[in-house]
Structure formats: C-alpha cells, structure tokens
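Hey, I'm writing a tutorial for new members on how sequence and structure tokens pair up, and I'd like a real worked example in the thread rather than a made-up one. If someone can provide the structure for the chain below, I'll link this post from the tutorial.
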Amino acid sequence: MTEFNNIPEHIAVIMDGNGRWAKKKGAARIFGHKNAISAVRDTVEGCAELGVKYLTLYAFSTENWGRPKEEVDGLMELLIDSLRKELSTLMKNNIRLKTIGNISELPGNCYQELHEDVLASEKNTGLTLILALNYSGRAELVKAVEEIAEKLADQELSKGDINEQVINDHLSTNQYPDPALLIRTSGELRLSNFLLWQLAYTELYFTDVLWPDFRKKHLHAAIEEYNKRERRFGKTSEQLI
C-alpha cells in the first residue's frame, strides 16, 4: 500500500460523471449510477486503509430533484438497496455512517433506511462516512443565519457575539473538521453548491476520470498531489518553517 507523509484528516468528494459514463456505453443514466457503487466502495475502503478520519460524499443535491423523475426514482431505489447491502460491511469495518442535508424530504422508506443505518453504526470508531443527501451549501448557510437571528431576537446572543465559530456551530457539519482535500471527478471545475463555508481553505483536486471508473489508485493520486501542496492558511512559506 502507498505510504504518504501527510494523510488528509477529512476528504470530500463530488462524485461526478455517472451520466456521461453511461452515455459512452449507450446506456441509460441510471446504469452509470449503479456502476458507481464500486467507486464508492473502493474509495471508502481506501480511505479507511489510509487512516482518513472523515469522508464526505456528495450523493444528492437539492438541485438533483430537477432531473427526470425516472432517474430520481431510480436513484432513491438504488440508495435504499445499497444501504441495506452495505450495512454489514460498514459494521465489519468499524465505519460510522452520518448524513448532512435535509433528509426528512427524502422518500419515507429511504429516510427510514438511512435512520436505521446511522443508529446501527453510531458506536463505530473508525472512519466516519458522511453522505450529503438533499444537500445545498447555500440552504445550509441560510438556515444557520435564521437560527442565529432567532437567538438574537431572544437575546440568547448579542451582535458582538457573532463570529466565525458561532456560524460554524450552526452548520450541519459542526461536529466535523473542515475538509483538507476536495476531489471532483469528470473534469468539471466547480463546487456545485457543496460545503461552501467549509471549503474556504481546502485543497482542490480535479480529475478527468468519470466517477464509475474511480478507484484506489486515483484516490492515492489525489493524496499524492495533496502532499505536494503547501498549506499556508494566509501565511508565508517562511512562517511555516
């Protein structure tokens, strides 16, 4: 197994390219989503092997509801089926499952399966796998502002209390460190409304590999590139010595 001097504590992934992968093979988009499960499994396994503590996968955005109904329905069925099949693997490998996003708006059977798997794995102490489902970075920030405004109105907070930490405390990711590395597949060069606050100092890595083809070797390539970066957080190189 490849050895690295610096393993990102938290990796986030925008899993992109399922539809184009399927189109290249003359198949429906859902065929690409089904074949993406192997990429998810390989990435989770690879992160666990390397000692990554948190892995966030952008599985379904609020904008994805605008896709054809047949594709959305197929995605939800695939999610339920995958959760049922993979729970034993999560438990065997001591992986804790968490979610971010408004999962209460998912279909009832999908929400129930997620809820049960999260509860079943909550005492696991290895890799924390975070699924971003029905997630929107902007909506998350709006919700945080609303909650802070309510506390101001109730005088639980004063204007002078508001700082970055207070905002961070009102985000759905408040119990996790910000991602150190973001990987986006398929060659697209945008964030797509994903973790907009949390990615402020994240190293961005873009690859042309379509998500269904993504494997451990591609994960290792991203981490290898990450190890070449100098994370200065606004300081100079000399200050880091």
